Amino acid sequence: MLKEGEVRIPSGCAIAAMISTEGNLMTGEKIVKCMVPMHDRSNGLGGGFAAYGIYPEYKDFYAFHVFFDSHDARLECEKFLKEGFEIVKSEDVPIRKIPEITDVPIIWRYFVSPMSSVLSRLQLDDREFVSRCVTKLNTKFDGVYVFSSGKNMGTFKAVGFPEDVGRFYRLEEYQGYAWTAHGRYPTNTPGWWGGAHPFSLLDYSVVHNGEISSYDANRRFIEMFGYHCSLQTDTEVIAYIADYLLRRRQLSLQEMAWIVSAPFWSVLDRPNTREAEQIAYLRKVFPSLLLTGPFSIVLGFTGGIMALNDRAKLRSMVVAEKDDVHFVASEEAAIRAIEPDAENVYAPIGGEPIIFRVKEGAF
Amino acid sequence: MVIDAKNKQFNELNRDIWLSNTEGKIVNCLGQRFIAAGLKDKSIEIEGTPGNALGAYLNGASIFVNGNAQDAVGDTMNEGTIVIHGNVGDAAGYAMRGGEIYVAGNAGYRVGIHMKEYKEKKPVIVIGGRVGSFLGEYLAGGRIVVLGTNRDDKPLVGSFPCAGMHGGKIFLYGDISAIIFPSHVHTKVATTTDWKEIEPYVTRFCEFFGFDKNRFIPDNFTVVTPDGANPYKQLYVAN
Amino acid sequence: MNPLDYVVPHFEVIRNFDRCTNCRACERQCANDAHFFDPKTQTMQCDDSKCVNCQRCVCTCPTHALKIVENDASFRRNANWSGEAITEIYKQASSGGVLLSSMGNPTSNPVYWDRLLINASQVTNPSIDPLREPMETRVFLGKKPSETVRNPDGTLNTDLPPQLELETPVMFSAMSYGSISYNAHESLARASRELGVFYNTGEGGLHEDFYKYGANTIVQVASGRFGVHEDYLNVGAAIEIKMGQGAKPGIGGHLPGAKIVGDVSRTRMIPEGSDAISPAPHHDVYSIEDLRQLVFSLKEATRYQKPIIVKVAAVHNIAAIASGVARSGADIIALDGYRGGTGAAPTRIRDNVGIPIELALAAVDKRLRDEGIRNNVSIVVGGSIRNSADVVKAIALGADACYIGTAALLALGCRLCRTCSSGKCNWGIATQRPELVKRLNPDIGCKRLVNLLTAWRREIMELMGGMGINSIEALRGNRLMLRGVNLNEKELEILGVLHAGE
Predict the structure, then answer these.
(1) C50 within 8 A of C33, measured Cβ to Cβ
(2) Which pLDDT does position B206 carry in this prediction?
(3) Of A69, A128, A151, C374, which one is least surrounded by beta carbons within 10 A?
(4) What sign does the dihedral C356-C358-C361-C365 (CA atoms) show?
(5) Is the pLDDT of residue A170 over 90?
(6) pLDDT of residue C132
(7) Cβ–Cβ gap B117/C271 under 8 Å
């Protein structure tokens, strides 16, 4: 059977997220609990979480979470890392052995910092360098898969139901100001851990529900800019699009939303406003980054999250709040499961980005 | 108005020209292409070496170059005058359909190829020195005059002149015995009528470059014209 | 006549004498003088050798008394020497001429469009109802900026290089006034305006009457530079440099003096009766860096207001050529496949030179992406786009839009008899004879072209809806939406598609 990345596998899913705009830290317990009512949106073939603010003692270092198929693969990877990085810590990711999660690979994490001499020789900024190294490890090294590479954040994922994956990774022991979660319903899968979600690159993480119909148009466009879609999943391509638009093209989240979930021309043609002109410009410049077909996503990044639906709103998604905490989920019940008194429940309209940011200085 | 072309890109230089008054002078010109492309109603003098496609699509403006020019001078030119006080490169006056080009010195390959005329619009090229091969290839109209004033023991015209010529006239001054013409063109000594046709242009040439007009004896011109208007008809059979 | 020169007529005109009323309509309709009235027998007769099977008489006979069939008088069967191959030898032995053909390559090489199948959504994502939900087919052709520039207030600077905006990703390809008639041009121009697309002047200049359609006109600059002057360059929405044509890559053009009459002569700005010769190359483009020079000379002359299209024939090394073109300042590359039409081309060149557009497009789109410069140019493809499914497949392979020529002429009445070069088109399309030209009513011609593209647009929307795609830009280059059948591994590799079942 072909491995994930060698064949394209469509999936349905459940997503959820929570963030404290005050920057208050929350353990992973709640987000795991949140996924339980949506159990039937997953089929046990993938679950995962992304957490922001969890490594304050190493916040200046890139935290690499890596799956290894063997110890040899780990040694190869470390050899490569030592050429470009200072490794300040290297350890097992703590897990809890449970019967629901099987075929466990070697799960390792490194806290690293690119060597300034290497950066100046290559004339790259550190984020571009890290992004290239991750791409290289994931495409050129057998049995190595870096599934998390941001600063002061981490992605945790496995084959299994999300609530089991949460227990497996002992998420109740981590504290973060923002969490996203994903339960996967792939049509078929060989059960490779790298194929579970969230997908992340640097501090961008994406959880996503739906199967986009524009996938290959998006993939073939984004691969022009040095990305390699090794997993052939929508989530992966969306993460690369976010990195390209936000980091490399220096666009805002709203502008990214106007591109990937662009308003219809019939809407844009009507008002001759400054805003319509800006949106039309973005559609003309980035036609190949329009995502069509159903999706709801939560994009996580340092200091915030963005929830977004496709422009025809073909997937369900609700947001709600309680005090300083904001919630996003595929279903309202998921939010109620952890915050029965959630207020201002709202279903964003297609293409409307819902952005929550932690207040300045609180993360 | 003087425009200093030093370190200017061609598009910056052309923008300056569009904004200039009716008379301008470009100094320190070095290789900028497309100078005065499509320009209608200005007069421009150039010090230095203009780049390729000088006066492309020219539409009425005048250009004077105090030196040599490069390739494709007056490409697809429609109207106006280009005067070069030196030599020009290849393909001067390509597909020209109106206006006049005067060159004091020599011209490269493919002078005036595919020039064409229509009614009162008759393009004219006058070359003071000698010209390279493929002179007047596909010539469909207009007049090309080659005066050979600076014969330096090299042929007045290179190889394969008039290939595919099917209109227009070429005037060659002096001895043409070494030139091999294709079978589909006629050569004959210029008549008074022929001379009258080019006399105004030869006169202007002499004025521009300080030649004595009397040195050109009408009888020493040879006129080359195509033989029959549709030379290619018999090449094909309907299938 | 020398019996050696006799060629058995290709067609046989069959007349049902029970129905024929001797009204002589067929005789009046036939510019080839095939039909005539025989006073001796008091019947209509026919010289089969003059018939080109344009079907004009068949379509206009009031009693439907006529049909035209292929002549069954044949040579002895031979799998190597076909009847056509033999006849061509006779024609050349008799005339010493180069065989001259019209319209696109009719040989039986594979049509790759027919070996590609389109996807549809089932279960994992929804198909979309194209009739009741929004379905977008608008495209913008032109260079896209690679830098984000902001105004002082933080908003985006929305200045763009010039773009062509199409409501449907289909345009009418270059057909010169001269090769086709005034009424054909008027039909194309008016239909383009109505449809929000563009037609292309070809290399014959632009008739003064049609300047008013300039906003929907692409003006062409070919090696002959006919009719090229400042007003012409400025009136069009875009300028196309014709480097080559799919039907005859590597050779020039030749409109015989007989067709350079009246307005055609005026529009081309050459005297009546003189041959209009387009040289094989542009004589100011002998190398790729010269192309840059020609592109920028046109940009300078038109003050950077017009996108520049560079049209090239699909030849062996097309991917590298297109890459060079993309780096030469072109805003749009038009690729013309070896099945593309023509008013006249040497038969041997038409049938043996160039490569299929499907493979050329796939190779070019991939190469430009591999080099990271696909955004520098848009790609327009032509060379036998026959229907809306071909358009959808072309876009999924990576095209931004398609050019159609033959399909547009068929809509105007062309019967594909392939004798355009004779100038005796009975349908008023490929002719300059006033009595024939007036048979093509531009009101009707325009309407039929509008109908054609309206129908195609609906079909494109249906196909897109089936795939769950509601905007054409999400289809562009989306090769996962295609699967191949009857293709070998190499063909699949070049097309960049999986085999059906994979």
Answers:
(1) yes
(2) 97
(3) A69
(4) negative
(5) yes
(6) 84
(7) yes
Mean pLDDT of B4-18: 91
CATH of A11-211+298-357, one of 3.40.640.10, 3.30.70.580, 3.60.20.10, 3.40.190.10: 3.60.20.10
Q: Does the active-site annotation cover A13?
A: yes
Q: Which domain holds residue C26?
A: 3-97
Q: Which among C204, C174, C208, C210 is positioned nearest to C189, based on CA atoms?
A: C210
Q: So where are chain B's domains? A: 2-235
Co-location of C87 and C206 in the same domain: no
Q: Indicate the residue type of B189.
A: V
How far is the alpha carbon of C122 from chain A, nearest alpha carbon, in Å?
A: 11
Cα B2 to Cα C220: distance, rounded to the nearest angstrom: 36
pLDDT at residue A190 in the model: 60
Q: How far apart are CA A322 and CA A331, in angstroms?
A: 16
pLDDT of residue C419: 95
Burial class (CB in 10 A: 0-12, 13-18, 19+), B57: buried
C347 with C437, same domain: the answer is yes
What pLDDT, on the 0 to 100 scale, is given for residue B233?
A: 62
pLDDT, position A270: 78
Is the Cβ pair C277, B166 closer than 8 Å? yes
Q: Of B41 and C379, which is predicted with more confidence? A: C379
Which residues in chain C have their CB less than 8 angstroms from residue B121's CB? Answer: 269
pLDDT at A1 over 60: no
Query: Is there a contact between B56 and B37 (Cβ–Cβ < 8 Å)?
Result: yes
Chain A residue with CA closest to C166: the answer is A284
Number of helical (H) and strand (E) elements in chain A, helices listed first: 11, 18
| Letter string b/e over residues A247-275, b meaning 16 or more CB atoms within 10 A of that residue's CB | bebebebebbbbbbbbbbbeebeeeeeee
Do C192 and C82 lie in a common domain?
no
CATH number at residue C74: 3.30.70.20
Residue C66 has pLDDT above 80, yes or no: yes
Q: Which of B64, B78, B61 is nearest to B22 (CA)?
A: B61
Residue A189 is predicted with a pLDDT of 60
pLDDT confidence band for B122 (50 / 70 / 90): very high
Q: Chain B contacts of C276, Cβ < 8 Å?
A: 140
pLDDT at A2: 63
Distance CA C111, CA C27 (A): 38
Asked whether the beta carbons of residue C300 and residue B38 sit closer than 8 angstroms, the reply is yes
In a domain, residue C260? The reply is yes
Parallel/antiparallel/unpaired status of strands C253-255 and C276-278: antiparallel
Per-residue pLDDT reduced to its tens digit, C417-441 = 999 999 999 999 999 999 999 999 9
Residue C421 carries which DSSP code?
G
Is residue B163 pLDDT above 70, yes or no? yes
**Predicted pLDDT of residue A259:** 97
- Note the ipTM here: 0.86
Do C480 and A215 make contact, defined as CB atoms within 8 angstroms? yes
Task: Say if A66 is an interface residue toward chain C (CB within 8 Å).
Answer: no
Closest to A193 in 3D by CA, of A14, A11, A3: A3
Of A217, A225, A312, the CB nearest to C477: A217
Read off the DSSP letter of residue A326: E
CA-CA-CA-CA torsion sign (A104, A110, A111, A112): negative
Neighbours of chain A (3+ CB pairs under 8 A): C
Q: How many domains does chain C have?
A: 2
Taking only the tens place, the pLDDT of each residue in B49-97 is 999 999 999 999 999 999 999 999 999 999 999 999 999 999 999 999 9
Q: Give domain status of residue C486, yes or no.
A: no
Nearest CA in chain A to C167: A265
Domains of chain A, by residue range, sit at 11-211+298-357
Contact in structure between C182 and C190 (CB atoms under 8 Å):
no
Q: Which residues pair with A14 in a beta bridge?
A: A183
Q: Does A4 score more than 70 pLDDT?
A: no
CATH class of B2-235: mainly beta
